[in-house]
Amino acid sequence: MADKVLMKGNEALAEAAIMAGCRHYFGYPITPQTEVAAYLAKRMPKVGGTFLQAESEIAAINMVIGVASAGKRVMTSSSSPGISLKSEGLSYLAGCDLPALVVNVQRGGPGLGGIQPSQSDYFHATRGAGHGDFHMLVLAPASVQEMASLVFKGFDLADKYRMTTMILADGTIGQMMEPVSLDMGEVIAYDKPWAVTGTGGSRKHNIVNSLSLLPEELEQWNIARYQRYAQIEKDEVQYESFLTEDADIVCVAFGVAARVAKNAIVAARAKGIKAGLIRPITLWPFPKEALKKAAEKAKAFVSVELSMGQMIEDVELAIRCRCPVLLCSRVGGMIPTPEEVLAKIEEAQNAGRCE
Amino acid sequence: MKRVTLFAGHYGSGKSSLAVEYALKLASEGDRTIIADLDIVNPYFRSMDSRAELESAGVDVIVSPYAGSNVDVPALPGEMYRIVDDREFKAVVDVGGDDRGALALGRLSGALKQENDYEMILVVNFLRPLTQTPEEAAQVIREIEQAGSLPFTGIVNNTNLGELTTREHVLEGLEKAEKLSSMSGLKLLGSTVKPELLPEIKTASAIYPVRIRHRADWAIF
C-alpha cells in the first residue's frame, strides 16, 4: 500500500484487523458500521481469511467464541442495538477467559434509537456488558488513524490478558475519512496452551468452559480474574493530555467529543481562560490517577459527552468530588458544537473553585 | 454538454462532493438544474448535506424522504423520475457507492439509454485502499456497470489525501488514470486538484480546482 491512504474509520479498523493477523470475521450489517463488513467481505477472501455474514448478531458472537476457543484471532462488529444482542456472548467470553475483539460503532439509543453518532453505550461497555463480574478492555479512538492503531493494539491486549477488547467508537469516527498510515509494526505471537486445537493423542485435552457448580471453585475463578484486572489498571491506562499543565478548567472527553473539545479549548485559551483536556484512550481502565492529579490545581471539570452523562460518574469518582464537574452533552445523534463547549467552559470558570 | 451527468464510483471516491460542485456550477451558469441523491446505502456524509447551499443556488434537490431521518429505509422517491422525464432541466445524479449503491440506477437506465444524452462518470481516487491500481479501478467499473445496467462514458481522476495532498499525489494519480483510460477505452475527462496546487500541475488533460468541504467542528486534532 501507499505510505498513506484516504480511509473511512470503519475501513481502517477492518484493515488493521487483517494486519493484526485476524482471519476470521463474523458480523451482521447495521448502520453506521456496515462498511466494516463490506470491506472485509472484499478483503478476507484475498488473504485466505473467512468473512461470514451470520444470521444474527447472536450467532456472530457465538462464532467468535468458537474461533477464540481454537486460539485464533477473531473479530465481530456492530452498532449499539446489535451490541445489546451480543451481550450474552460477551459474558461467556469473559467467563471462558477468551481473547476477542468486538467493535461498537455507537448510534443513538435506547431501543432502535437512531442512526447518527452517540456515546451512550459507555455504561454498557465499562460496566454492564453482560451478567456476572467482569470487565472488558475498552479503547476509544478519536481519529481514523486511531481506529487502525487501537484495533492493532486491542488484539495484542486481548491475547496478553485473555480478555475481550472492545473498540468503543461512534458513528462519526466510523464514517469520517482521513489520511491514515497502516504501518502498524510487528504482530506479537502469544502461546495459547489452553486452546482447543486437538491433542494429537499427546496431551490431556483442553476444556474451554464458563460453568462451575462448585461455589468454592467459581469464587476462585472470579478472584483470579480480578487479580488480572488489578494488574491491567496498573499497567495499561492510556490517555492524552492537551494543555493541562496550568489548566483551571479541565475538560474530559473521548472520541469525536474530544475533537470538538480541543477546538473549544483553543478558543477558550484565546479568550484568556486556562482550559485543557484529558482524553481517555482506555475507558476501562479509566485514567483515574491523571484526573486526580489534575484536580490538585483545577477549579472545575467539564465532562463532554454524546450521552445524558455517563462518563461524568467516573470523572467525579476519580477526582473524589474535589471540585465541581459540569456536563456538556448532546444526545440522540447530535454532536455538541465548539461554541457550546466553550460556553460550558466559561460557566465552569465562573462556578468553579477548589475547597 | 450532455443533459444528464451521473457520478458513480467506489464509496468514498468523492462522487458526492463532485456532484454538488458540478450542480452548483451549472446553476451559476444559468441552467435549470436538479441534483438527485440516489444513495440508499449510507446515511452519513452525502450530497444531501449540502441541501441548503444547493437550494439557495436555485438547484432542485431530490433525495429519499427518509435520508438523514431516523427511519433506516432504503427507498427512493417517485420524484426521481424527473431525472429522465423533466427534460427542461440539466440533471446531476449522485449514484450510491460501489455496485450495491448503483443497483437503484437500474430503474432509470432504460430511459437514459433511450434519450441517449447522458455522461456516466467514474470518479476514482487512487489513494483509497481498494482502488490503488488501475486494475482494481477497472474491476469497480465492471461491477457498477453490471449492477446499474448503464455503461460508463468517462473518468474523472479525483486522487487526493485530503489536506495532505501533494503535487506528487496528483501526478501519480494522473498517471494511473491515464492507464485506466487506455485499459478501459473510457475518455479521461479531467482531474481535480485542491486550488492551492493548481499552479504546480501541468498536464495535457483538463484540470479542475475543487475545494475541500470541511467539518470545522473537529478540525483540530
Compute the number of helices of chain A.
12
SSE pattern of chain B, N- to C-terminal: EHEHEHEHHEHEHEE
**Main β sheet profile of chain A:** 7 strands, mixed
Distance between the termini of chain A: 56 Å
Q: What proportion of the residues of chain B form beta strands (DSSP E)?
A: 15-25%
Could you name the CATH topology of chain B?
Rossmann fold
Order of H and E elements of chain A: EHEHEHEHEHEHEHEHEEHEEHEHEH
Terminal Cα separation of chain B, in Å? 42 Å
Assigned CATH superfamily of chain B: P-loop containing nucleotide triphosphate hydrolases
Task: Provide the residue-averaged pLDDT of chain B.
Answer: 89
CATH architecture of chain B: 3-Layer(aba) Sandwich
Précis, in short:
The complex is a heterodimer of chains A (355) and B (221). By secondary structure, chain A is an alpha/beta fold.
What does this molecule look like?
The complex is a heterodimer of chains A (355) and B (221). By secondary structure, chain A is an alpha/beta fold. Helices cover 41% and strands 19% of the residues of chain A. In chain A, helix 1 crosses helix 2 (34-43), helix 1 (9-19) packs parallel to helix 6 (144-161) and helix 9 crosses helix 12 (338-351). With 221 residues, chain B is an alpha/beta fold. Chain B has one domain (4-220): Rossmann fold, CATH 3.40.50.300. Chain B contains seven helices and eight strands; from the N terminus they run βαβαβαβααβαβαββ. Chain B has an eight-stranded parallel sheet, with helices on both faces. Chain B is globular.
Fold blueprint:
The complex is a heterodimer of chains A (355) and B (221).
Chain A: E1 4-8, H1 9-19, E2 24-27, H2 34-43, E3 50-53, H3 57-69, E4 74-78, H4 80-95, E5 100-106, H5 122-126, E6 137-139, H6 144-161, E7 164-170, H7 171-175, E8 177-181, H8 215-235, E9 239-242, E10 249-252, H9 255-270, E11 275-280, E12 282-284, H10 288-294, E13 300-305, H11 311-318, E14 325-329, H12 338-351
Parallel strand pairs in A: 2-3, 2-4, 4-5, 5-7, 6-7, 10-11, 10-13, 13-14
Antiparallel strand pairs in A: 1-8, 6-12, 9-11
Chain B: E1 4-9, H1 15-28, E2 33-37, H2 51-56, E3 60-63, H3 82-85, E4 90-94, H4 98-102, H5 106-115, E5 118-124, H6 134-148, E6 154-157, H7 167-184, E7 187-193, E8 207-209
Parallel strand pairs in B: 1-4, 1-5, 2-3, 2-4, 5-6, 6-7, 7-8
Helix pairs in contact in B: 6-7
